[in-house]
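Ticket #4471: structure export looks truncated?
Reporter: QA, pipeline team
Priority: medium

Steps to reproduce: submit the single chain below to the structure queue and open the exported record.
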Amino acid sequence: MENILWWHWIVLGIILILMEIVVPSFTIFWFGLGAVVTGLLLAALPDVSLKWQLLVFSASSLGFTFFWFRFFVPRKKTKTLLADDQAAIGQMGIAATRALVPGEHGRVAFSVPVLGEESWMYLADEPIETGNRVRVIAVLVSDQGERILKVKKVL
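Actual output as written to the record:
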């Protein structure tokens, strides 16, 4: 375990960054950057012990994640909270959960927050599979006052 080379960290970082394409959370990306930082540190100082490598990886990953959520995400939400329902129409997202029966509720995730949230409950008039790309065609309000997005599958 002591034989971890600098390029091992760089490869781990690249893999984690590329996983962000498949798992849209924007958290794995920061751990990938933490691995790259650790790899660069190990390339510059090859005698750093595994304990310090893990400490640098943990601290840098958590630091990147903290700054992301502390400084960038609140600005995105504030910016989009001011938008009205009409601004949501036409936005594209990915079905995080399926809704195979028309009228059934599912969950859709957006890469950029829509109406202040990154995911919303949706319903559609057609079967939606997990991973389908969908477009918002209306914003509905339930009996409880909760907003639900009506979506259509994008082919």
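Status: closed, not a bug. The export was complete when the record was re-opened. Leaving a note from the reviewer for reference: The CA atoms of residues 77 and 116 lie 5 Å apart.
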